[in-house]
Amino acid sequence: MTNTDTPVLAPDAWATLRRITAWIDNANGHSDHETAMRLLKLAEEVGEVTQAYIGMIGQNPRKGITHTQEDVADELCDVVVTALVALYRFADDPAGVLEAKIQKIAKRMEATDA
């Protein structure tokens, strides 16, 4: 990250994610089962994005249009938060891991554009 770049998430967002993760840890523990449940929760949230998108475009003629673009955006945010909370199970520095991944993708993109 160069000094002109801003972090992917503001530090206070990462602090909030740490609090969410601690809250879930306190309620559910740290077992392998809990890790699996967090990954399954991520899959559930992705399903909700799909459901919202199908509802937004009215794909189901029996139901018609049931969701808005804002509903899809809201569900996508749930996916992001759920993924970031799960990331805490696999990385001591989730912010650094996410930033490194974004930079890696950017470098591949730049190499492709060159």
UniProtKB/TrEMBL annotation:
Domain of life, source organism: Bacteria
Entries under InterPro entries matching the protein: AF0060_NTP-PPase_MazG-like
Name assigned to this protein: MazG-like family protein
